[in-house]
Amino acid sequence: MKIKVILDSNFLFIPSQFHVDIFKELENLPSQRFDPVLLSPTRMELLKIAEKGSPKMRQQASLALKLAEKCRIVNVEQSFKETHDDMIVRVAKDWRCPVATNDRELRKRLRIISVPVIYLRQKSHLEVEGDIP
Fold first, then answer.
1. Rounded Cα gap, residues 78 and 70, in angstroms
2. What does the CA dihedral 26, 128, 124, 13 come to, rounded to 10 degrees?
3. Closest Cα to residue 120, out of 94, 98, 95, 101?
4. Residue 131 CB coordination number (10 Å)
5. Cα 55 to the center of its chain, rounded Å
6. Which of 71, 82, 120, 130 could lock 116 by a disulfide, CB 3.0 to 4.6 Å apart?
7. Which residues make beta-bridge pairs with 100?
8. Non-local CB neighbours of 5 within 8 Å, separated by 6+ positions
């Protein structure tokens, strides 16, 4: 059975920043089969960066959107008062599924509530922090 993993937008920047194939790396993680999920507000965030970011960020966001095509897009409501990270924490907790992110603050918040985190280690490979069910 595949395990949903929520991808944060910065996770999709890894290939353009560090030349690491995140999907291949996900497959290489010990005995896991992941179903990469992109939450609809994360996709909207990438679209906004691709349109309005600095030239370098626009280029990275465009590549991230191409990679996002390999993910299942799941429509999720983000409340008006909720930050992007708040929404990811809420959905990961509800679904009891890991989150793939390189955001240090988000990783800390997820670990506090025992949500496993997948992140880039030493700019070369993915690692899991916590136990994946």
1. 23
2. 70
3. 101
4. 8
5. 22
6. 130
7. 7, 118
8. 26, 34, 35, 36, 37, 97, 98, 99, 100, 118
pLDDT exceeds 90 at position 133: no
Kindly list the structural domains of the chain, giving each domain's residue range(s) and its CATH number in brackets, ordered by start: 3-129 (3.40.50.1010)
41-57, pLDDT tens digit by residue?
A: 999 999 999 999 999 99
- 3-state DSSP helix/strand/coil percent for the chain, to nearest 5? 50, 20, 30
Query: For the range 126-131, what are the long-range contacts, defined as Cβ-Cβ under 8 Å and sequence gap of 24 or more?
Result: 126/20, 126/22, 126/25, 126/26, 126/28, 126/29, 126/100, 128/29, 128/30, 128/32, 128/98, 130/98
SS3 label, residue 46: helix
Exposed, middle or buried: residue 38 (CB in 10 Å: 0-12, 13-18, 19+)?
buried
Q: How confident is the model at residue 2 (pLDDT cuts 50, 70, 90)?
A: confident
Maximum distance among all Cα pairs of the chain, rounded to whole angstroms:
40
